[in-house]
Amino acid sequence: MLNLLCSERGRAELRQAGVPRRWPGRVALLGLPEAGRADAALITRDVVGASTDDVLTPETAAFYEALLAAPGLRWVHTYASGTDRRIYAALRARGVRVTNSPGANAEAVAQTALAGFLYFSRQLHRAREQQLQQRWEPLRHDEVRALRHLEAVIVGWGAVGRRLGACLSMLGVRCRVLRHSGEPIEEGWPTDTYARFRQWVGEVDWVFFVCPLSPATESLFNIDTLSALDAGRPLGVVNVARGRVVDAEALLAAHARGLVRHAYLDTFRAEPLPADDPLWRCRDFLLSPHMAGTSDGNRAEVIDRFIGLLVRELDGEA
């Protein structure tokens, strides 16, 4: 018998997916009052809700406390692509196996990264400003660069990077790729390891961070990056990876010097972003509250992936 702790909504979704029918008498779906019996747990998006790694809602805190207090817990699966939050480190330290859902939200994240890029590259930020000021000032053709004249570096070549690369290529943007392995990709684009970042970032128009957080990617954009940039070709930045991949102080310094023109940021070193953070006041930046992967299709993807793991767990293939 697998005693599985999950939220009320998670239990409903697992029932709808036919889990109790598929394994009658072998899976018990538990709520928080029964958490002490849990062997496994499913963390769905509603468990985390508005919580961040720094600030937990009471509901999230209660679920996390139940996980840490369950004496027989041996497996936790999360809806998230990454497992760098403190709760996962604490669980692993207890010997709990933590599995995740990489790529479940890849389509949404890639689309959001593309939207942030198009918002600035197609000058929609200027149109929005005119609308707010009720001002009509059509742009000249030479004020808007054709996308086919742009070059970009995609930092990370997982499910998000591949989808984003396909979209950018379709729009005519020439792409390079930095990835952990540095191995060539089937598209034939220039490819290297993250160590090449400092050289390539000064040779392109846009950089897209879609990589996992790792020792190789933490603060990849930092104060030393500024020496590689050129005010004659100011950079555009999109970060839908992790906030710690980009040093925000260095990014603001680059903007102040005319080395970075625009940035779309969905993730931040501290979340929620403090109200007095200078990023809020930069009119050339677009910020969103860690929502790039938000989509009504994600939950079904996560449940499908979890059931795939259940098959191996319960049918002896693990």
Automatic annotation (TrEMBL):
Keyword annotations: NAD, Oxidoreductase, Pyruvate
Full protein name: Glyoxylate/hydroxypyruvate reductase B
Gene it is expressed from: ghrB_3
UniProt xrefs under InterPro entries: D-isomer_DH_NAD-bd, NAD(P)-bd_dom_sf
Species of provenance: Pigmentiphaga humi
D-isomer specific 2-hydroxyacid dehydrogenase NAD-binding domain location: 117-292
Lineage summary: Bacteria, Pseudomonadati, Pseudomonadota, Betaproteobacteria, Burkholderiales
EC number from the UniProt entry: 1.1.1.79
Record flagged with keyword Transit peptide: no
Gene3D superfamilies associated with the record: NAD(P)-binding Rossmann-like Domain
Enzyme class, broadest EC rank: oxidoreductase
GO MF annotations, alphabetized: glyoxylate reductase (NADPH) activity; NAD binding
